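Objective 1b. Sequence-to-structure analysis of ATP-binding cassette domain-containing protein.
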Amino acid sequence: MTEVLLAVAGLSVQVGGRPLLREVSFELRAGEALTLLGESGAGKSLLAQAVMGNLPRALRAGGRVTIGGATTAAADGAARRPLWGRALALLPQEPALALDPLARIAPQLAEVHALVGGAGFGQAPALAARQLADIGLSHAVRRYPWQVSGGMAQRAAAAMALAGGARVLMADEPTKGLDAHWRARTVETLQAVQRRGGCVVTITHDLRVAQALGGRLMVLRDGEVVEQGEAQAVLAAPRHPFTRALLAADPAHWPMPAPQAAEGEPVVRAQGLAKRFGERRLFEGIDLALHSRDRLVVQGASGTGKSTLGNVLLGLQPADAGVVRRRPDLPATAFQKLYQDPAASFAPHARLAQSLRDVARRHGRAWSQVQACLDRLRVPESLLGRRPAEVSGGELQRIALARVLTVQPALLFADEPTSRLDPVSQQEAMALLLETAAQTRAALVLVTHDDDIAAAVATQRLSFGEAAAA
């Protein structure tokens, strides 16, 4: 029988005596995979951070973690730190927080190859360049993380997690923000770790990824394991009501949108828009007109300019060619953006309640309106006393959605607004987004890589990398 690479026994996490994760146990041998499903905030990312030994100070871990035969107390994170990158690696959920914004991508990756992978400084740059070329980032070797798209940053962070050659890899939402091609490539990369004699723990909300990875599946809710077993068996015949609800809420089952007639003067009109990034052409010849209650879905491969188009429409970036006309009776604050990376859109040291109250005060909204959105999105009031880094990515994404809906914009550019949410929360969040947009007569521009979400939302479509159809 092959050796056990990772064993977790009775792993728990508490804050101030309140349990966040309860008695989780599993073990993985060489070549095996475990996928974690569950609602946003259920403790999936906490589990990964506890295994790494990288929990925030206020949290306390219990239980034991065994890596490659060496057992340590879960609370003794310092004992596992020498294993980071070499034996135990984590691809975190937020690439913006994993990459150094002041260092170019290729040198960052080369440093990992040299200092963690043992390649040496002479060989490391060539290894980094080859790895970046393999993941379609050869054009980005001289760029900083903030100069690439969210999907590109995700791929760069994954490359760095793999560069040290760790046999135990934990990947937290590794396909978030990736198009279908790179989602499949990421799954292949995780499977390659297994073929090389490693094991993989994958946290995902994407049921297609769980299906493709196979292995074992564990479903968490409120910090507890409610179901586990072979992935194909659980997905085909779930026993627990929550697992059934997760599968039923998959976007493939959402109803199609009803057609809508254009209303009044366009909120925004664009003609002949073109934009380049350095030597790369992102888009050109874009013509569109968005009226109240229009829902335009923008799709295309990572890095093709979808987010940039939204920034141009909102007036955050200038176009290289063409013109944008916004309805003259609308103030600048009527054009709002829901960011792809929610962590980067909140003041890091301000508590979430303060950030929300500042927005409500700035736009003359009652606090009860904010609370109504938070209630619809199932955001507990207890989270508002925390800072952005102290909540999960999915929880922060829901709070960001409540914040922007409080403003009641005339045009909302939503950049992958549900990518960090489980299917149930995703369906609830999208329903609230569409309902609020309809009530306030807002136009919506939605960026998504999910074809099923696009089909359920779009009244117009714009595809990059191929002829646009609107």
